[in-house]
Amino acid sequence: MAERTKLYFASDVHLGSGTYAASREREDRLVRWLDMIKTDAAEVFLMGDLFDFWFEYKTVVPKGYIRLLGKLAELSDAGIKIYFFKGNHDMWMFNYFEKELGATVVSDELVIERNGKKFFLHHGDGLGPGDSMYKVLKKFFRSRLCQWLFARIHPNLGIGIANYWSQHSRVAGAKDKEKIDTQQEWLVIYCREVLHKTFYDYMVFGHRHMPLDIALDKKSRYINLGEWIYYSSYAVFDGEDIKLEYFT
Known about the structure:
By secondary structure, this protein is an alpha/beta fold. About 30% of the residues lie in helices and about 20% in strands. It has a single domain (about 5-245), classed as Purple Acid Phosphatase, chain A, domain 2, CATH 3.60.21. The strands form two sheets. A six-stranded mixed beta sheet has the order 4-3-2-1-10-11.
């Protein structure tokens, strides 16, 4: 068996988006990827919007995704560390994955150092210039008041409303990465502002649905993980360097 030393990063799978058949196919693809990487993965970072919607009631979670959850349990039981990042579609994660999988749930950024390389990790929503309306909504949706109010709604109604909202907050834009002005890309602007204060070798995000690897300066890079609707893209750190790859 290969030694487990690698870090794997993926984002924006949006399970539950589209038709049931399309979501199941995407889930099966992700499970095959997890099965492939389990031989050499030390840590797996699922960096937001794994689900198109997620809310944990006290005794209820959204049904489905049993193949994915079973595979994640297998990895966890094998000693592979799993991280869940809250995205803008699945920000209402609480302690379910911590209790069932021993996972770490990350609300905002996570800073880690591995093999002498420093990583800044974040889903990517609400950062950088602009998008002021979403930043206000994010604060409200993450507030205890909003979560308490939503929890008072019966799951049949609450999850139905949330799925309708989520389906209309569309998964889009993945095919336009060639049109991106990398100097004006708002997460690149954010990264360069952060680097004025603190050095990171790699700044890794999801959210933008575009696989991107952009030099921020001579030593630091911005990595966007893309998504799993068009690209099935992910990143892997082998102890020396990080690179984008595509699962087929």
